[in-house]
Specification:
Number of domains: 2
CATH superfamily of the largest domain: Type I PLP-dependent aspartate aminotransferase-like (Major domain)
Strand order of the largest sheet: 4-14-13-12-9-5-6
CATH topology of the largest domain: Aspartate Aminotransferase, domain 2
Structural class: alpha/beta
Number of strands: 18
Largest sheet: 7 strands, mixed
CATH class of the largest domain: Alpha Beta
CATH architecture of the largest domain: 3-Layer(aba) Sandwich
Number of helices: 13
Oligomer: single chain
Length: about 450
C-alpha cells in the first residue's frame, strides 16, 4: 500500500531535517511518482500536482526519471552484487567507470578516486594537494586560495573554501580554516552567437588584485580552488573563461595545485562537456559528481594528473605515498554501473568523441529554449537580471525571493523550482522538449510576477 502524500507530510514534520531548514519546517509537498521530466506531488490538502522538474533534482537527474537504460543498468548489476568493499578488491563497474572518466575529461587527468558525494570528492582533492606539497618538500604550504562567491560543499574542509561572508556557511566562519580568498571575478555572459561579453577593465582589475594576493601568500599556499565559469550555489554567477587561464598561469608560476570543482558544471551543463574547456585549460585535479549517475545514486570522483600522482607515489614524508581516504561505499558497484550507463547516454558509444555526443544537441536545445522563454522576465519591475548559460537559466530579483510563495505559485502553473536568495533559476533535465521549456518559462515568470510584481 502506498502512503498518501498527506500522511507523509504529517509524519515528516519534526522527524527529519531538510536541507538548510529547521527541524519543524517539514516539506511542502510529497512526491508520489516521477517519470521522464515530470513529478507528481501532493500537498497538505491532498491535492495532486503534475509538474515539470525545473531543477533536475538539484542538477543531477539530467536524463529524467525512470529512464529505461539506467533502470536496466541498476537491475543488471543488482543481479550480480550490489556492494563489496573496495579495500583490496576491485570490480568491473569501477574500472569501467574510471576508464570512461579518463577518456572524457581533459587529457592530463589520468588517475581516479571514487568518492561517495561531491563534498567528499572536494575533501579528497584538498588532501591530495596537501600531500603533494609535502611530497615536494613544502610542509609549510597548508592553505588554499579560493574565489569569493564560491561554494564547494558542506563538510568541514569544503566549508572552509566557501565564501566566508556571503556563502552558506558564514555561521561557521570562526571554526573553519583560515584560507585566502581571491576577489569575486567580474560578471560575464555568453551571447546567442557563442561570444563572451564582459568588462575588460574589470577583468584587468581583478587580475591585478589576484596576482598581488597570490604573490604575497604563495609560500603558504598548497593550491587554488574554483568552480569553472559558473559559481553555482554561491549565486549562479557567470564569469569570463579568461579567469581560468590566469589561475592556471599563477598555479604554474608558484607550483600550486589547480583544483577545478566541476561537480555542478560537469557533463555538459554549461555548453561544454566540462566548464574548463571554455578556457582550453587543464586543471591538476578535477572533481565531478551530481550528473555522474544521472541522479540515480550518490557518487562522485576526483581525477588528477600524472604529475600529482607520481609525486605522491614517491613521497617519504609523514603521510607516505598512500592517498589517505577510503569511504565505506567507495566504488559502489550499483552506482558505478549506472554511472557508466549515464555516460553512454551523454556521450554516445566510444566511436564518437565525447565532446560531440548527444548531450551537445540536448544542451543547445535547452540554451535556445531558455533564452527565448525567460527573456520576457527582463520586463518585470522587480527583475534585476536574466542570464542563460548552456542548460542554466537565472532570473535575479532586486530583493530576496519569497521562496515558499514563489514555489507554490510555480507549482500551480505546473512547474517545480526551488529558489534561493534573490534567484529564481532553472536547470531542467537534458531531455526536456521545446514545448516543456516554453511551459517552464511561462510558469517561472508567471510565479515571479504574481508574487513580486
Amino acid at each position: 500500500m502506498i502512503t498518501t502524500g498527506t500522511n507523509l507530510l504529517s509524519r515528516d514534520v519534526g522527524l527529519v531535517w531538510h536541507p538548510y531548514a529547521p527541524l519543524d519546517a517539514g516539506a511542502h509537498y510529497a512526491v508520489l511518482e516521477a517519470n521522464g521530466t515530470q513529478l507528481v506531488l501532493e500537498d497538505a490538502a491532498g491535492t495532486r500536482h503534475e509538474v515539470l522538474d525545473g531543477m533536475s533534482s538539484w542538477w543531477s537527474a539530467v536524463h529524467g526519471y525512470r529512464h529505461r537504460v539506467l533502470d536496466a543498468a541498476v537491475r543488471t548489476q543488482l543481479e550480480r552484487f550490489s556492494h563489496v568493499m573496495f579495500g583490496g578488491l576491485t570490480h568491473e563497474p569501477a574500472i569501467e567507470l574510471a576508464e570512461r572518466l579518463v577518456e572524457m575529461t581533459p587529457n592530463g587527468l589520468r588517475h581516479v578516486f571514487l568518492a561517495d558525494s561531491g563534498s567528499i570528492s572536494v575533501e579528497v582533492a584538498l588532501k591530495l594537494a596537501l600531500q603533494y606539497q609535502e611530497a615536494m618538500g613544502h610542509t609549510e604550504r597548508h592553505r588554499f586560495a579560493a574565489l569569493r562567491g564560491g561554494y564547494h560543499g558542506d563538510t568541514f574542509a569544503a566549508m572552509g573554501i566557501c565564501d566566508p561572508v556571503d556563502g552558506m556557511h558564514s555561521a561557521f566562519a570562526q571554526r573553519s580554516p583560515s584560507e585566502l580568498f581571491l576577489p569575486k571575478p567580474p560578471a560575464a555572459r555568453r551571447n546567442a552567437q557563442g561570444d563572451w561579453e564582459y568588462s575588460v577593465a574589470r577583468l584587468a582589475q581583478w587580475e591585478q588584485e589576484t596576482r598581488e594576493l597570490i604573490a604575497a601568500n604563495a609560500g603558504q599556499l598548497a593550491g587554488i580552488v574554483c568552480e569553472p565559469v559558473l559559481q553555482g550555489a554561491g549565486g549562479m554567477h557567470i564569469y569570463p573563461p579568461a579567469v581560468l587561464g590566469i589561475l592556471r598561469e599563477l598555479a604554474d608560476q608558484y607550483d600550486l595545485v589547480l583544483i577545478a570543482d566541476e561537480i555542478a558544471t560537469g557533463f555538459g551543463r554549461t555548453g561544454q562537456l566540462f566548464a574548463v574547456q571554455h578556457a582550453g585549460i587543464e586543471p591538476d585535479i578535477m572533481c565531478v559528481g551530481k550528473a555522474l549517475t544521472g541522479g540515480y545514486l550518490t557518487l562522485a570522483a576526483m581525477l588528477c594528473s600524472s604529475r600529482i600522482a607520481s609525486a605522491l607515489a614517491g613521497a617519504k614524508g609523514a603521510t607516505g605515498s598512500a592517498l589517505l581516504h577510503g569511504p565505506t561505499f567507495m566504488g559502489n558497484p550499483l552506482a558505478c554501473a549506472v554511472a557508466c550507463a549515464s555516460l553512454d547516454l551523454l556521450a554516445g558509444d566510444r566511436s564518437t568523441a565525447a565532446n560531440d555526443g548527444p548531450w551537445r544537441h540536448q544542451v543547445a536545445t535547452l540554451e535556445s529554449g531558455l533564452r527565448a522563454h525567460l527573456a520576457p522576465a527582463a520586463d518585470l519591475a522587480q527583475v534585476k537580471d536574466v542570464r542563460v548559460l548552456g542548460g542554466v537559466g537565472v532570473i535575479q530579483l532586486a530583493s530576496e525571493v519569497q521562496v515558499s510563495a514563489v514555489t507554490e505559485a510555480a507549482v500551480q502553473r505546473g512547474v517545480w523550482v526551488r529558489p534561493f536568495r534573490d534567484l529564481v533559476y532553472v536547470m531542467p533535465p537534458y531531455i526536456s522538449t521545446p514545448d516543456q521549456l516554453a511551459t517552464l518559462g511561462r510558469g517561472v515568470i508567471g510565479a515571479v510576477q504574481q508574487i513580486h510584481g
